[in-house]
Amino acid sequence: MQEILPLLLNGGDLTPIQTIPNWDRVPWLEEKRLAVIADTLTAPRAMVTHFPFRLMPPSFHASKAKVIYVMRNPKDILVSSFYFHQMAEFLDDPGTFDEFIEKFLDGNVMFGKWTDHVKGWRSAELGDRILFITYEEMCQHDNDPKHTARATKEWLRKKHFKVLEWPSQSPGLNPIENLWRELKVCVAQRQPQNITALEEICMEEWAKIPATDLPAALRQMSDFLGRNPSEGTIQKIAQNCTFKTMKTNRMSNFSLVPKKYMNPEKSPFLRKGVPGDWKIHFSSEQLAIFTSAIRKELQSESFTLPYNLD
């Protein structure tokens, strides 16, 4: 959001993301220096936070501020947080992965339990002031028989995936086919020797492919923010907000932060950025414990998660 929002709000001008550190162009609400930075920003101002809804300041509730709430698979959040705790010198050592899972589920991490965070914002009575965005919000595929089989449709329904309708005989309309070919070529060149290596290489190569769904998400956010950028501007923003681009941008990758606060030698701030990285970290036993705890916490909620917790 620290990359996307300035570009959406100023018509795609790259100057802010190329010249201003992200913590100054889109400051954190939880920072002590917020008051000083906020006064230097021109309207409409963009800010970010990890705050649960219950900690939002009174000024927020009295305002007309809009919220874009970004959800992510909790298993990927846990993995990302585990590595962040390793590199952030101002945080406690995460311990072993087993120990960190326990801390995460108990809420003994910054900003508390993930389930409480989601429940708080999902139940917030903000009307049209809030937009929920997820990585896994929409699944798009063609009418290949394996996609339209009864078992496949039933699985997608149970897992709450939204699927776009396609005309019959339509595999050529699906741009994902080009990505599958690109992925297969890249993976074959690295010659994985076993299943574990194959999975790791697939995820690494997938992360290198520019995100093709980002323009659609940008259009959705633009509408929500009352902006109407041209298609060229949308594509320009998307290109400059890919994980690969941000990772090389010194104004965005936190490389300007002194090592005494964030040590990239322990783990880079922008590590992988690929959904599903949890699969190479969780054991079957850890996964069972994690999913059971999350389900128990959310069992009485009226909303459903757009993730497969298994």
Automatic annotation (TrEMBL):
Its EC number is 2.8.2.-. InterPro entries: P-loop_NTPase, Sulfotransferase_dom, Tc1-like_DDE_dom. It is an enzyme of class 2 (transferase). One of its GO terms (molecular function) is sulfotransferase activity. It comes from the Eukaryota. Residues 1-140, 212-299 form the Sulfotransferase domain. Keywords: Transferase. It holds the Pfam family DDE_3. Residues 142-198 form the Tc1-like transposase DDE domain. The keyword Transferase applies. Belongs to the sulfotransferase 1 family. This is Sulfotransferase.
